[in-house]
Amino acid sequence: MQKFSNLAGRILIAQIFLLAGINKISGYAGTQGYMEAMGIPGALLPLVIVLEVGGGLALIAGWQTRLVSLALAGFSIVSAIIFHADFADQTMMIMFMKNFAIAGGLLVLAARDMKDTISIDNRLLTRANG
Questions:
Q1: What is the pLDDT at residue 130?
Q2: pLDDT-derived band of residue 85, with 50, 70 and 90 as boundaries?
Q3: Which contiguous run of DSSP H or E holds residue 64?
Q4: pLDDT, average across residues 58-69
Q5: Residue spans of beta strands (DSSP E) within the chain
Q6: Is 50 helix (H, G, I), strand (E, B) or coil?
């Protein structure tokens, strides 16, 4: 049961990043304009897309889970502060809290031992230990 709940949890948390990254590709110009309007250089958008899509896929596969979880947790917190800190707008406040909740889940995942999980990390660990 634990193997499958770990995989399911990784898929559920990864899908938000994977879909957000794909949407940024299809709405590239609009996303770049929004970033620039918020004071963030639009030239960073390709890095954001790589982090979201690549990080989402890495979480699903269970590859470099600790590192990817920490990177996405930091990204979630920074994104919340930059893009969702207008607490006068209830939607933005909810988005802010959502990003922090996702970061919390990612930090729990980062602290989790990937031993006995359905993941590339576990496969590599098993292979290394004999």
A1: 67
A2: very high
A3: none
A4: 97
A5: none
A6: helix
* Residues of the chain by 3-state class (helix, strand, coil), percent to 5: 80, 0, 20
pLDDT tens digits, 96-122: 999 999 999 999 999 998 888 999 999
Q: What angle do CA 44, 24, 91 make, to 5 degrees?
A: 100
Nearest to 40 by CA among 85, 87, 79, 72: 79
| 125 pLDDT higher than 80 | yes
The token pair at 102 is: 């996702």
Span 39-52, average pLDDT:
98
Q: How distant, in Å, are the alpha carbons of 56, 72, 77, 81 from that of 113?
A: 19, 18, 23, 29
What the block records as the tokens of 81 is 């502060």
* DSSP code per residue over 86-128: -TTSHHHHHHHHHHHHHHHHHHHHHHS--TTSSSHHHHHHHHH
Both tokens of 44, joined, read 């960073």
Q: Cα–Cα distance between 8 and 38 in angstroms, integer?
A: 34
Tokens representing residue 76 in the block:
């979630």
